[in-house]
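Title: Request for sanity check on Aminoglycoside phosphotransferase prediction

Description:
We are preparing a figure and want to confirm that the structure record we downloaded matches what your pipeline produces today. Could someone re-run it with the sequence below and paste the raw C-alpha cells into this thread? We only need the C-alpha cell string, no images.
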Amino acid sequence: MTPPTRSRADLLALLPEDRVGVVDQLEPINIGLSGAGVWAVHASRGEYILRIQSPELNESAFLQHLRVQRRAAEAGVAPEVVHVDEGARAVVSQRVSGMPMGAALGNPTQRERLFASIVDRLRTLHSLDATGIEASSPLAYARKAWEAARGRPGFPGWAASLAPTFDAIGKTLDADPRSVVSHNDVNPTNVMWDGTQTWLIDWDVAALGHPYYDLATLALFLRLEDGAALDLAALHDGAPLDEKSRASFRALRTLVGLLTGFTFLGLVDDLNVRPAKERSDAPTLTDVYAAMRARELDPQTAFGQASMGLALLAESIPA
C-alpha cells in the first residue's frame, strides 16, 4: 500500500511553527505496511516524526489509534505527541534519538537492560485505561487472510490445511479471555532504544487484546527460544506462568506468525515470484534478516514480501 505523494507545502501546513519551530528539512521514511506516509522532520525546536494515516483507514479506527497513542505518550511508553490535525489524520511526535531494538541487541552489554525495559513499557501499556478502546480480532483476520490466499496460484501446499490450527488457537484463547490496551505490532522495528529506555512507535493497529500478544510478536520476530520467551511473559506478570498461560502464549505466537505471514503474502500479486513448493524451500527469518542487512532483499518489493511471508509461516505453522 503506497501513500499518496504530498508536496512540501502540504507537509509544512501540518507542522505549525508555534509547535515545532521553523522546518528546514523533511525526509520521507519508508517503513511499515499500513500505507501511512512518514517523514523525519528537522526544525528549529528539535527532531520530529510526521505521520499521515492512510486514507483507506476509517475515521473511527484513526481516532482509536490516536486515543491509545496519547495515553501511551502520557505514560512514557510512546514519544510525546506534539501536534495533531485530525482532519488530515496527521500526528507529529517527538523523534526518539536512538536505534531500533534489533540493531541495539547487537551490543550484548545492553541486552538485559533492553529486555527489562521493553517488558516494563509493555506492562505499563497494558495497565492503561481501556475506556473507549475497542477490541481487535487477530484470529478472525488471520483466518480470513488464509482463506483469501490459499486458492491462489503459487500458494504453498504446506500452508493449505490450517483449519485445525485456527480452531485450536481459538479454543485456547477462549479459555483465557484476558484483554488489555495493546500495541499489536511490537516487531523490533517498532521498538526504539535511546540508551536508557525503550519507546514504542507506529500505533496503527492499537486496540484491546490479550496481554501476551505484544510479547508473542516480539518473541517471534526475534526468534527467541520458547523458554526465553516464556521468561519474558513471567517477568511481565511478576510470577511464573501456569500451564494455561503458557498455552496462551504459544498459541498467540503461532497466531502472530500466521497473521503477519499471510498479510505479507496478500501484498504480492504473483506468489510464483518466490515459490516454496516444500516447506524446506521457504527461507528462514534468519535468512531474510541477513539478506536485508546485506541489501540483497527489499521488503518493499514483491520478492521481499513473499520471502518474509513464507519465512513467518514456516516459523509458525506446527510441524
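Thanks, this matches our download. Strands lie at 23-29, 37-43, 46-52, 81-85, 90-94, 99-100, 180-182, 191-193, 198-200, 207-209.
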